[in-house]
Amino acid sequence: MIWNKSKECMSRDEMAALQGKRLHKLVELVYHNVPFYREKMQALDLAPEDINSIEDIVKLPFTTKQDLRDNYPVGLQAANQSEIVRVHASSGTTGNPTIVGYTRRDLEIWKECSARAFTSYGVTRDDIFSVGYGYGLFTGGLGAHYGVEYVGATVIPTSTGNTDKHLRLLRDLKITGIACTPSYALYLAEAMERNGMTRNDIALRVGAFGAEPWTENMRAEIEERLGLQAYNLYGLSEIIGPGVSYECECKHGSHISEDHFYPEIIDPETLQPQPCGTTGELVFTTLTKTGMPLLRYRTKDLTSLICEPCACGRTNVRMTRIIGRSDDMLIIRGINVFPSQVESVILEMPEFEPAYMLVVDRINSLDTLQVQVEVRKDYFSDELGAMLQLRKRLADKLKSVLSISADVRLMEPNSIPRSEGKSVRVIDKRQLK
Ligand code: DLL
After folding, report:
1. Residue 212 beta carbon below 6 angstroms from any ligand 1 atom
2. CB of 336 closer than 6 angstroms to any ligand 1 atom
3. In which band, very low, low, confident or very high, does the pLDDT at 365 lie, cut at 50, 70 and 90?
4. Arithmetic mean of pLDDT, 187-209
5. Can you give the pLDDT at residue 135?
6. Residue located nearest, by CA, to atom 20 of ligand 1
7. What is the pTM of this model?
8. What is the mean pLDDT of the chain?
9. Which atom of ligand 1 is nearest to the CA of 91?
10. For 235-259, what is the mean pLDDT?
11. Ligand 1 centre and the CA of 194: distance in Å?
12. What pLDDT is attached to residue 422?
């Protein structure tokens, strides 16, 4: 099933012409409304008239997460504040979140792209769909919600947590579709088994999984244990949220809504564009957004593009699974965590040495984060109460900065191994097979 044939199945020439026209308009918009882009373009001796086709995109400057941070909170916004109708935010590396403002038009685009995804999974108005992504500043909940609702299915905004209630609703409402992180899907399967339920007690037939990396083996396991067809859903808040790309029934790469989000693959070292089939860093230009449009945003996600036609009939370019990142961002229970966020919290507290280690694991399908940190000699004490209090203070601060709980382990002075070269701050024991 295809939601919008005219946009998902157009000829490559038509697509390139549309992208070129939209790119020119976008460049005019940011040149006139965003001083950051005007200055960057002037430094390159570029004017909007120089950008006339999609091939001209390589002349434009890149945008990085650092640029967003430097222009915190809304320096890259192109629309007046009165035109912004929604704000989402994602984690930054040093406590500053990335703020993304959406105009009414942006929300329409997002809803459209999200609906394309759910339609490609085979969702119809006859489905009853549970959205188990977090609702709030994270884009997962509301992004999936509006797409499912636009298709006309019944939405159950279950959000995260509340696993027992979720299971009960799955069973009692005969829910047929679910959107959540792939690790939460496995967690639900385990909880179901613990509660004496089997896949025959529920009616799930389709799932939209994303917000974190997953594998073909995880797909097979989720499909088997929940009795559904599992599809990939990709996106990022800076670009719009879930719906930037999505799998079709062929389950071979995720189609990019490239009439709205123009993809490029670059070599993260040389920044040179790479041809289809080559793995590199994914870069997006938001061709139609008006709230916070971005030119050549470096996602840091490593993947490759598939440019051959797909058997489903869509002509949009596909991207392969994300195989990693070119920075140190971790995704823990669907939440983006940078080791530097932990570091900045530790450095603010005089009780600790700047010696710490993050141990990430996956236990019973749930990601866990342990933070080991050395207590300074002057503060180290045999008194249990004092140490428990210190541990709680750090745990509370970490929770407020990271938005997830960490198991804090206080260590004796000089107990965490120092490295001579590049320090190892993260041990990720999760093996995504
Ligand atoms: O995770 C948006 C989203 C919500 C996508 C729900 C899909 C479903 P952010 O919090 O900004 O946005 O995190 C974006 O998560 O750059 C990838 O590294 C990773 N990511 C998102 N989807 C996938 C996926 C949402 N399907 C970052 N596979 C991205 C692998 C993914 N990684």
Report:
1. yes
2. yes
3. confident
4. 96
5. 95
6. 211
7. 0.92
8. 95
9. 10
10. 98
11. 29
12. 63
Give distance in angstroms: CA of 85 to centre of ligand 1: 23
If you average pLDDT over residues 373-387, what whole number do you get?
95
Distance CA 308, CA 246 (A): 16
Q: 47: CA distance to ligand 1 center in Å? A: 33
Average pLDDT over residues 287-300: 98
Ligand 1 and 241: CB distance under 6 A: yes
Q: Ligand 1 centre from 241 Cα, in Å?
A: 8
The owner of tokens 């994914």 is 282
Give helix 12-33 / helix 35-43 axis angle, nearest 10°.
Answer: 110
Structure tokens at 158: 């279950």
